[in-house]
Amino acid sequence: MERELIELRSRTNMLSGRMGSLDKYFSENEGLSKEEVCEDYNNRKGGNDGYVDLNEMRVVMREEFKRVCEDYNNRKGGNDGNRLKNMLGREDYASGGAVVRKHSVKADYFADPVRMITPSFGQPGECFGLKGNRGFVEIKLRSAIIPQAVTLEHVAKSVVDNRSSAPKDCRVYGWFSRKKITRDLSMYFLGNFTYDLEKSSVQTFDVSDSSRVIDTVRLDFTSNYGNPSYTCIYRFRVHGYQPDI
């Protein structure tokens, strides 16, 4: 698996560089759509020399990542109950059937919230953007679990220079939505953490309460790294194990 990942990174290195350059250009021209930025960027590059096609790059990188993941699953003996194994080696219950139930106001020019619970290669722009420097998302997990940790991901600093849209101070809550009591009584505080831009782009944090069964998680972020317009979540994972019922 390690060899395939190295090959994947090598094949997508050029595309990542161009996506990073385009993302930086986009951040400096927030009034334009990404399609308009692409057109203007390409014109400045002088026609097709260095041409950037945003959709083409996304498709290529997504298909390459999908191929590697399928190969990994096949080597593990098929779908194994349709479980989705992530590259951290820990089960992610916020994907493969999970649903984003609620979220704060979405930034205008970003994709659907499903982006933040979908496996990807972490390419620039492949994220869910929320308006402002504070907000929340609520995710119905694909099954009830006893939570152990959460993982938050932003774009790597080796890909883009400007990462001011990364979440900073965060809190996580969980509850079991089928309890016939008010949500306030069933909501549990699972912990707070700070996403550190100086560390890996993928950071895992243990929860403070791992004794409760939950099927819904809420991520609150109360600050980011300076972007006043929007905050981007590239991937949010929830780890744990299914209780014996």
From TrEMBL:
<dbReference type="GO" id="GO:0016020">
    <property type="term" value="C:membrane"/>
</dbReference>
<keyword id="KW-1133">Transmembrane helix</keyword>
<keyword id="KW-0472">Membrane</keyword>
<dbReference type="GO" id="GO:0005635">
    <property type="term" value="C:nuclear envelope"/>
</dbReference>
<keyword id="KW-0812">Transmembrane</keyword>
<protein>
    <recommendedName>
        <fullName>SUN domain-containing protein</fullName>
    </recommendedName>
</protein>
<dbReference type="InterPro" id="IPR045119">
    <property type="entry name" value="SUN1-5"/>
</dbReference>
<dbReference type="GO" id="GO:0043495">
    <property type="term" value="F:protein-membrane adaptor activity"/>
</dbReference>
<dbReference type="InterPro" id="IPR012919">
    <property type="entry name" value="SUN_dom"/>
</dbReference>
<feature type="domain" description="SUN">
    <location>
        <begin position="60"/>
        <end position="243"/>
    </location>
</feature>
<dbReference type="Pfam" id="PF07738">
    <property type="entry name" value="Sad1_UNC"/>
</dbReference>
